[in-house]
Write a structure and sequence with these properties.
It is globular and about 40 Å long. By secondary structure, the chain is mostly helical. The chain has helices at residues 9-16, 20-29, 47-64, and strands at residues 6-7, 36-37, 43-46. A hairpin with a 5-residue loop joins strand 2 (36-37) and strand 3. It has a three-stranded antiparallel sheet with strand order 1-3-2. Helix content is 51%, strand content 11%.
């Protein structure tokens, strides 16, 4: 779609506050689909897909945490 916002791996990492390695992990695990390549041959993703991958990861992480976090 013309209205989609496209992001590279680095931009997705900056957007979510996660590392580049985390974004690559989402790809490997099937949580984030590569939507195409930009003019430099870098992987690009739809903004909405990146947000969904981050959200689903946070939901799964919260399920693993039992009780209050210790500081």
């Amino acid at each position: 779609m013309e209205d989609d916002v496209w992001m590279t791996v680095k931009e997705a990492a900056l957007f979510t506050g996660d590392s580049v390695q985390t974004v690559y992990s989402w790809i490997r695990r099937g949580h984030l689909k590569v939507s195409g390549l930009d003019h430099r041959g870098q992987k690009v993703f739809r903004h909405l897909d990146v947000a969904r991958a981050e959200f689903s990861t946070r939901i799964r992480t919260k399920r693993l945490v039992q009780g209050p976090l210790v500081q």
